[in-house]
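Ex. 9. Protein: Pur operon repressor.
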Amino acid sequence: MKKLKRSARLVEMTQYLLARPHTLISLTAFADRYQSAKSSISEDLAIIKEVFEEEGIGELYTLAGAAGGVRFVPKCRKEQALERIQSICRELEQPDRLLPGGYLYMTDLLGQPGLLQDVGQMFATAFADRNIDAIMTVETKGIPLAHAASLYLNVPVIIVRRDHKVTEGSVVSINYVSGSTKRIQTMSLARRALREESRVLIIDDFMKAGGTIQGMIDLLHEFRAVVAGVGVFVESGEVDNEERLLHDYISLAKLTEVDLKSRQIVVQPGNFFN
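Predicted structure tokens for Pur operon repressor:
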């Protein structure tokens, strides 16, 4: 790269860091990239760090030593996230979203880039310190949420299938009991999809009793993987604690009331904001 003026270098460095979250970048790499002294690079990073923290973009961590450098960790402020999730809750409360069984139609929302960006940043903030190796979700509506979070955590997405695909090769399959319908269902994961003993974040779009997520947890045990966290976009608040199969999770929104006759829906911020 040609030598840049400081103003241009600051812009390019900022973009470089934003595109590589959770990645350790050495001062030497920056110095070589911009043909500048390490002292100048350190001053630039101090400016970027201040702006990131003041604007609620994230944190820039410095690691000293020969193998050190800087690592950008995306984070969002709780007050900004709360304002956004309240707006999402209002959209979810529209009567025409109500589906049989107390479920909500969310497919259109999960196709909005701005919403996915915000939700991905919230999940990344909630699990920033979990040392995650991969994100797991089950097809299909959880896929865009998982990819949104993966962009900020900079880890691959692992997709659990409900039906075995020939293109997946050898798979590990388990049976699980759906928490809401009590039916026995099957899920599978390709053997090549996940390294053993990986730390995995599970992301799901909607959780009622937690049977699907518990199935993914059981599937991870077959890979000797560690469940580093569970993130849910919307949880149902109409399930008793005794019926819920999962208690350790973070939700962004909570469906607290559904009246099928009046078609009234109440959605509130989830436990991430507690």
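Check your answer against this statement. The helical segments are 6-18, 27-34, 38-54, 78-92, 113-126, 142-153, 211-222.
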